[in-house]
Amino acid sequence: MRTIGIIGIGSMGGAIARGLLETGELRPEEVALCDREMDRLEPFATRWPALACYDQPDLMAEECGMIILAVKPYVLAGVVEACGESLEDKAVISIAAGWTVPMLRHLLERTGARWLRVMPNTPAMVGEGMTALCEDTSFTQKELGLARRVFNALGRTVTLPERLFDGVTALSGSSPAYIYMLIEAMIDAGIREGIPAPAARELAAQSVLGTALMVLSSDKHPAELRTAVCSPGGTTIDAVAVLEEKGFRHAVQEAVRVCAEKSRRMSEQNQH
């Protein structure tokens, strides 16, 4: 019996697999992967020959104690149906946006499986992911401990109630796209100032990374940290004034709000 099986080796499923294997959190002998597109599995099988690779989800599910459903929301129900009785008494993790705990319970209870909803994000690919685990779960304490180990291998985890997961989707699940836009705009601005593109890229990206690490390592509010950068009569305060004038803060808050609303609508659609 393998410890973990991952169904769907796309961006997130692949990131989870690489995180577990590259950090040594699990040995290849403990992991199984499944995807209908076998070319997605080939790089993993080549690097870690002891992995088990499948193109049929039911065959993989039979061999694993915990299964991670890393598939698109619209195919999740079909994958569970394909697994059928293979999920009996198994621990099943869903990373699908819009699939609420009541929906997972309804889908999985007839299979005899236990469920846990999680929301990771793509920086898991570089070991700096942020994953929310839902506290509304039927997992045992031992299974929850393993789930935390899995996602801590990809970055950081928090545990939150189901009612906050639309906000989680908008704040951490989708926010890498917002940050990419910020970095892109900073790079373009640097190039306009005559800075060579490679240097502008490094200056912008490292500044965002370092700033985030300062927030995480400090107990100060970001507003206090921002004020410390804004010397009276200096250059930064003028830049911040322009951002406020152009609605920067409001635009970010509206983006998160709209994203959360879309997540709620997706949940409603998946129920029908």
Describe this structure in words.
The chain is about 55% helix and about 15% strand. It is built from 12 helices and 8 strands. It has helices spanning about 10-20, 40-45, 55-60, 75-85, 100-110, 140-150, 165-175, 175-190, 195-215, 220-230, 235-245, 250-270; strands spanning about 1-5, 30-35, 50-55, 65-70, 90-95, 115-120, 130-135, 155-160. Strands 3-2-1-4-5-6-7-8 form an 8-stranded mixed β-sheet, with helices on both faces. Strand 5, helix 5 and strand 6 form a beta-alpha-beta unit.
Would you report the number of β strands? 8
Q: Summarize model confidence as the mean pLDDT.
A: 94
Shape: elongated
* Assigned CATH superfamily of the largest domain: NAD(P)-binding Rossmann-like Domain
Strand order of the largest sheet: 3-2-1-4-5-6-7-8
Tell me, what is the CATH class of the largest domain?
Answer: Alpha Beta
Report Rg. 21 Å
Roughly what percent helix? 40-55%
Strand content range = 15-25%
What attributes does this structure have?
single chain, 272 residues, alpha/beta, Rossmann fold, ProC C-terminal domain-like fold, 8-stranded mixed β-sheet, 8 strands, elongated
Summary, kept brief:
This protein has helices spanning 11-22, 38-47, 57-62, 73-83, 101-108, 141-152, 165-173, 175-192, 197-217, 222-229, 235-245, 248-270; strands at 2-7, 31-34, 52-54, 64-69, 91-94, 114-119, 129-134, 155-160. It is an alpha/beta fold.
